[in-house]
Specification:
403 residues, alpha/beta, 40% helix, 17 strands, 14 helices, 4-stranded antiparallel beta sheet, binds pyridoxal-5'-phosphate, Aspartate Aminotransferase, domain 1
């Protein structure tokens, strides 16, 4: 049995009320809630050993440095990277993608080709568009189908010897589709292209093994895995991180500086200019411990049950359409015929239910379905079927009020 009551007790926020109603939090795809263990790690840092890292000889600085590097090792082990210095701690997925895109910007030339998927988050489209505008590389797109899956036969046709990089999310944030990244990586490597996988939406549900995947770059954000905002990771194979130029100049990322020439520090410091999010990194490590203590198999079982139950109950509502029916994580993106998603979301909020409405930073997907957006309910392991019943009743009420 999944210890749901015990787990819910780990999250203080789940006790609060919104508009006088118990909070039903179904916006986990935007950010997850924070367990007490992670809150404690943050309080402990600021209460007991707040100091800058890698600089001082004093005790606090040593303690902070040790904890920060311990967190890096936790993250390394979780993702099964070969080396701890292949884990770059960043501000999050967006910054991680930008580090790679801007690095490749100077390595690509006119006529080179870059492939992205139609299911991307804007953070994985815009940096590559900016890069292609700069160096004349061509951006190609793997189209999606009606179920919200990628058309892999078209991917085969897009790949050629000019393809240099392929970017794809592991799981789509708008629809929850789990993409066939193993196949994408293998096929891209056959033509000599590198692959960056955006794991922001996968990591709350799946424990990725970067060595088994043989992926070149893998990125994610802590705040979607029960960690704090403003911190995330860039995993890169050592030889590729060596190849990429640094992203920002500043303290911490240099070895020696004179006005004639600066030599860069080794990995991971080359990509960690300035004072990092020290507390955030340490709390990211605590979040990884928390998730692994529950276990990703148990998380998947619980979430799949919620997905099946929610899908069944919502589908009983007349005029309700669910977008994205391919193999997916616990996300239900839907609309009710003739009603704007925003109006449904506003009524749900009055009932204490938090969902996301809009294009979910994935406008090309909305264009594909010719809709302005969807209502997205995204579940986490700490959600319950009773909460889904509250959602279903809320959607029925919204439908009655709005039609
Ligand atoms: C949330 C998300 C991002 C952006 O993450 P940030 O933490 O805002 O940088 C990128 N890609 C996907 C798939 C996401 O779900």
């Amino acid at each position: 049995m999944f210890p749901i009551d015990k787990i819910r007790a780990d999250f203080p926020i789940l006790n609060r009320k919104v508009h006088g109603k118990p909070l039903v939090y179904f916006d986990n795809g935007a950010t997850s809630q924070t367990p007490q263990a992670v809150i404690d790690a943050i309080v402990d840092y600021y209460s007991n050993y707040n100091a800058n890292i890698h600089r001082g000889v004093h005790t606090l600085s040593q303690e902070a440095t040790d904890k920060y590097e311990e967190a890096r090792i936790k993250i390394q082990k979780h993702f099964n990277a070969k080396k701890a210095y292949e884990i770059i701690l960043t501000a999050g997925t967006t910054e991680s993608v930008n580090i790679v895109a801007s690095g490749f910007s100077s390595l690509l030339k006119k006529g080179d080709e870059v492939i992205v998927s139609a299911l991307e988050h804007h953070s994985n489209i815009v940096p590559w568009q900016m890069m292609c505008e700069k160096n004349g590389a061509v951006l190609r797109v793997i189209p999606m189908d009606d179920k919200g899956a990628l058309q892999m036969n078209v991917f085969d046709d897009l790949l050629n010897e000019n393809t240099k990089i392929v970017f794809c999310n592991h799981v789509s944030n708008a629809l929850g589709t789990i993409n066939p990244i193993e196949e994408i990586i293998e096929k891209a490597h056959k033509v000599g292209a590198y692959v960056l996988i955006d794991g922001a939406q996968a990591c709350p549900h799946i424990k990725p093994d970067v060595q088994a995947l043989d992926v070149d770059f893998y990125v994610a954000s802590a705040h979607k895995i029960c960690g704090p905002t403003g911190v995330g990771l860039l995993y890169g194979k050592e030889e590729l991180l060596q190849l990429l130029p640094p992203y920002q100049g500043g303290g911490e990322m240099i070895e020696t500086v004179t006005f004639e020439k600066t030599t860069y520090a080794g990995l991971p410091h080359k990509f960690e200019a300035g004072t990092p999010n020290i507390c955030g990194g340490i709390a990211f490590g605590a979040a990884i411990d928390y998730m692994n203590n529950i276990g990703f198999d148990a998380i998947a079982t619980q979430e799949n049950e919620l997905l099946a139950y929610g899908t069944e109950k919502l589908q009983e509502i007349d005029g309700l359409r669910i977008y994205g029916t391919a193999k997916k994580t616990a996300v239900i993106s839907f609309n009710i015929e003739g009603i704007h998603p925003y109006d449904i979301g506003s009524i749900l909020d009055k009932l204490g239910i938090a969902v996301r409405t809009g294009h979910h930073c994935a406008q090309p997907i909305m264009d594909f379905y010719k809709i302005p957006g969807t209502v997205r309910a995204s579940f986490a392991f700490y959600n319950t079927k009773e909460e889904i019943d509250v959602l279903v009743a809320g959607v029925k009420k919204a439908k009655m009020m709005l039609s």
